[in-house]
Design a protein that fits this description.
Helix content is about 40%, strand content about 20%. It is an alpha/beta fold. The longest helix is centred in the middle third of the chain and has 31 residues. The N and C termini lie far apart (about 85 Å). The relative contact order is 0.08.
Length: about 650
């Protein structure tokens, strides 16, 4: 009977468009799922979308739509990307589906009934973007969130709590007995340190959020989005029916692949819930790192977020899949560089793999009429290496060392290219003796079998390329449907090859760089601004602009955008409310010289009278400010405070 293997991606939050992080995790899961199928496993591969919570509720309100309409539209972006990336998931779950909501409420009710969930009051710091409470000992500098760096707010509300703290000793013991339950080792150490530092009971409901799954029997509360989301992994197997075939077959073999930023939810919160439910813990949680772009952190403000749709359209699907799996050791942070991607295409794909296929097929065409010849003994250093490669690749993939698996495969490909140069088949072909003919057949058969095995080995990583190789080798079966255990060396005599297009055309780096420079120059051109109605010079003179200095800055607790600033004009001091909270910290503002509109009619904002307006320039995307800079006067030693600007 086939062994079962259950692999999951995290469910992706639908408040934004898919990016390279989503693509990276899902491609990695796809590689392991495809590989395990080719090893004969019975595989279930789950992905999906997380669709509840305050951020969805707020964004829907901002777009003047309902949360349901919003998530129904946005989740399709992920489904479309998985199709573009050739992802072989067996299931796609949404947290708004009935099967998921049923499972979440069943878990909540069971834990409530057995006393592992209780009602209380939460008072403390809360991060709205992360939708999580932050313990006092985890708060970052300036009362900010340790995950996203944004300001925290103090809240007090009635809440249900999960009494997970009482299961912490059991979880620590489990991890001490299962050292590979969290990968890589650095994440294991991080989680063990966190657990031994003390874990508090966790708030698992919200009253200020309406878009979520209601608490059974108390619909004033909705279930906290992270408690809700984690249960998807069991919901997809039919939970609460733990006697279903799917649950009995796959849950004991579950592996979760996640980004390192959500590892505590998966290695602390989730296993504590499972311990309370008396359900076995995941076999492994595998955490990968983050991508930067050309050495910089990706952000919408910098405009350097990598769009996987765009990368596939420009460079091709399989080169993109190959690059993200090959470029960095899985688990480490890595840098995404289009120049490095071009380099991989030219070197690894075009020069090494593509060249080996082209040369081999050309020689079989020229010397054997396009048919793989007979060979009485095809044993060689390549055939010996083949068995070693199969073993080493299996070990690497089972350790989620995808980059190392590809290195091993490419060592095999490189050895085959060297094999051609060592045996000079073009020289053997000129000699009509039986001995030379036999040697030629020996060389061509070994090269053909190398390509056949290489196609099999790269199929989990580059399924379309593997299929193209098999088609050109004249093999009718699909490599992704083959089993590694059935591969036999030297059994291909009589196969008629079908040489066709070049596998990977080389990219002219000079031309590519010119096109890239032009594109970047075009991107920097400012968009045509929307102009206000023309005014006369007399109208402009009505606006009184003066040099001022910010002498204090403090948060306005009632506002998400405003700071209360005290400014010195030299001849007087004023209070100004300024909407720059999202772009500056208070200590960055104190001491700055700015330009102040001084003759605006005073306005009351959040109960504070604001007397003036600070000038700033902003970069806007879709109508929202994504970057902002203050207008600051130069040569301050010659310009006293209060000087008129005209």
């Amino acid at each position: 009977m086939a062994e079962n293997f259950y692999i999951t991606t995290p469910i992706y939050y639908v408040n934004d468009i898919p990016h390279i992080g989503h693509a990276y995790t899902t491609i990695a899961c796809d590689v392991i799922a495809r590989y395990k199928r080719m090893k004969g496993y019975n595989v279930k591969f789950l992905t999906g979308t997380d669709e509840h919570g305050q951020k969805i509720q707020d964004r829907a309100a901002a777009l003047n739509t309902t949360p349901r309409e919003l998530v129904d539209n946005i989740h399709l972006n992920f489904k479309r990307l998985w199709k573009v990336l050739n992802i072989s998931n067996d299931d796609f779950i949404r947290t708004t589906e009935e099967r998921h909501e049923r499972a979440v409420q069943a878990v909540f009710k069971k834990l409530l009934d057995q006393g592992d969930i209780y009602k209380g009051t939460y008072s403390g710091y809360y991060c709205v973007p992360c939708e999580t409470y932050v313990a006092e000992n985890n708060i970052a500098e300036n009362k900010t969130c340790p995950q996203c760096g944004r300001p925290l707010k103090i809240v007090e509300e009635e809440s249900y709590f999960f009494a997970g703290s009482k299961y912490v000793p059991e979880l620590i013991k489990y991890y001490e007995q299962n050292l590979k339950a969290i990968l890589p080792e650095i994440r294991y150490n991080e989680i063990m340190s966190f657990l031994k530092g003390g874990v508090h009971d966790q708030s698992v409901s919200r009253t200020g959020v309406k878009w979520g799954i209601p608490v059974p029997g108390d619909e004033k509360h909705v279930i906290y989005v992270w408690f809700d989301a984690l249960i998807n992994y069991m919901a997809a197997l039919g939970y609460p029916d733990t006697n279903s075939e799917a649950f009995k077959n796959f849950w004991p073999s579950v592996r979760h692949m996640v980004g390192k930023d959500i590892i505590r939810f998966h290695c602390v919160t989730w296993p504590l819930i499972l311990l309370a439910l008396k359900i076995n813990l995941p076999v492994e949680v595998i955490a990968h790192g983050w991508w930067t772009c050309d050495g910089e952190k990706m952000s919408k403000t910098r405009g350097n977020v990598i769009d996987p749709f765009k990368m596939v359209a420009e460079y091709g699907l399989d080169p993109f899949r190959y690059f993200v799996m090959r470029e960095i050791p899985f688990g480490n942070d890595g840098n995404f560089s289009e120049l490095a991607l071009v380099g991989r295409i030219n070197s690894d794909l075009a020069n090494d793999l593509g060249n080996l296929l082209n040369r081999t097929l050309q020689m079989i065409n020229n010397y054997c009429g396009g048919v793989v010849p007979e060979c009485s003994n095809s044993n060689s250093d390549l055939s010996a290496m083949a068995q070693e490669v199969l073993t080493r690749v299996d070990d690497a993939i089972n350790k989620y060392s995808f980059d190392n698996a590809l290195k091993i495969i490419w060592e095999f490909i490189s050895r085959a290219n060297k094999f051609i140069d060592e045996h000079t088949p073009w020289v053997l072909a000129k000699d009509t003796s039986d001995e030379s003919k036999a040697k030629l057949n020996y060389v061509l058969v070994n090269l053909y079998e190398t390509l056949k095995l290489s196609g099999l080995l790269i199929a989990p990583f580059m399924p379309s390329t593997a299929q193209r190789i098999y088609s050109q080798l004249g093999i009718s079966t699909a490599p992704v449907e083959e089993l590694f255990k059935n591969f036999e060396w030297g059994k291909s005599a009589g196969n008629a090859i079908k040489k066709s297009e070049v596998l990977f055309p080389r990219i002219d780096v000079n031309e590519w760089q010119k096109a890239r420079d032009l594109k970047q120059a075009e991107a920097k051109k400012p968009e045509e601004p929307e102009h206000e109605a023309e005014i006369s010079i007399d109208d402009f003179r009505k606006v009184e602009l003066r040099v001022a200095k910010i002498i204090s800055a403090e948060e306005i607790k009632k506002s998400k955008k405003l700071y209360k600033l005290e400014v010195d004009l030299g001849y007087e001091k004023r209070t100004v409310c300024s909407g720059i909270k999202n772009f500056f910290k208070t200590d960055e503002l104190v001491g700055k010289h700015v330009i102040l509109v001084t003759n605006l009619k005073p306005a009351k904002l959040c109960g504070i009278e604001s007397n003036g307006m600070i000038l700033a320039a902003s970069k806007k995307i879709d109508g929202n400010a994504e970057a902002l800079t203050l207008v600051i006067p130069e040569n301050l030693e010659n310009i006293p405070l209060g000087s008129r600007v005209s």
